[in-house]
Design brief:
Elements: E1 2-4, E2 7-9, E3 13-15, H1 24-33, E4 37-44, H2 45-49, H3 53-58, E5 69-73, H4 77-89, E6 95-100, H5 105-108, H6 120-134, E7 139-144, H7 154-164, E8 168-172, H8 186-195, E9 201-204, H9 210-220, E10 224-227, H10 237-245, H11 256-275, H12 280-283, H13 312-327, H14 334-340, H15 346-353
Parallel strand pairs: 3-4, 3-10, 4-5, 5-6, 6-7, 7-8, 8-9, 9-10
Antiparallel strand pairs: 1-2
Helix pairs in contact: 1-10, 1-11, 4-6, 6-7, 7-8, 9-10, 11-13, 11-15
Length: 406
Amino acid sequence: MVKIGPIELRVPVVLAPMAGVTNAPYRRLCREFGGGLYVSEMISARAICEGSEKTMRLASFDTDESPRSLQLAAVDPLHAGKAVEMLVGAGRVDHIDMNFGCPVRKITRNGGGAALPYKRKLYAEVVGAAVKAAGTVPVTVKFRVGIDDEHQTFLDAGRIAADLGVAALALHGRTAAQLYSGQADWETIGQLVEAVPEIPVFGNGDIWEAKDALAMMEQTDCAGVVIGRGCLGRPWLFGQLEALLEGREMPPHPTTDQVTKVMAQHAKALVNWFERPDDRTASNNSNDPTPRDVSAAGRNSVSEAKPNGGNGNKGIREFRKHSGWYLKGYPVGGAMRARFGQVSSLAELDDLLVEVPSAELPEENYRVARGHTRGPQQVAVPDRWLEDPDDGAKANPEGDNATSGG
């Protein structure tokens, strides 16, 4: 068991925040398969302070979701502190995760995301403001190795955060320059574990199947793992992780017959969530079972869900990208994948799901990459940003325009 402040994680696994992915329906689906800490999409501190309705909806949780974990992006101490104070004061969260790992150009060029820890004074001010405002609610920090190989920041960022009272750290073993290319450097995770022995360190990067998590923990002595791209189209990965970490036999990879059932449930949940944007908790508290053991799942119909009026079309459009991830690696054919990428209603999806041929996941595709694979890149940072890491530079407010979890 790993403790993050008062939160006890029986299974030391964290769902990484991913824009447009880790919303309430997907978090619920993952929770049904296995234990862990399931974090919201990255939320802009400035947008919370400005009362953005869209942002607050993204920051919503199921009524039975516990702990309520939210990731926050901030580039200045004022908005960081105020946003955390608002969230904690309203009783909306049980855990705040601060993101300093986003490698997206429009974020780093304004001094946000992975660029911000290079400015140690500013970074300390932002983290310190969040910790102070959070009170007894634990604050954690997630970051990358650095901007690039010449400007690594992870050891300083970890030490500063630990000294300020954060409850845990998470390190993605890539620089911002790498984006999602190449191999994650797990050795850096081990170095961070040694540098801050007083708090848990979670490792992130290249965990595509459950045994990868065990390998990372054995190699680095990290307290747990953060799962990002590895769970795209694979929510059952959390059940497989739970089994291995508890010394039980791992559930096998599902067949397409079982995958299509999960796809149906996910699509229906997304449509309902977008249909009722002001009552998302109610739309996620249906009695539709999502079995923890995917081997017990069979095909089911999704056409009994609400018709695609209102925002239902948005829900099914959002599901298109998930369909590609669910079928990745399975021998279903390019033509069928293309049809899933154009599906426009639950009824159409229902008809298409029954056409998916029965097949197992080939062993050579167990670790097939999903999600972003682009990179490397030349990281954009503000003018003169790299001259002095200890100066009093400030970031542009646009630097917390949350777009990616990093």
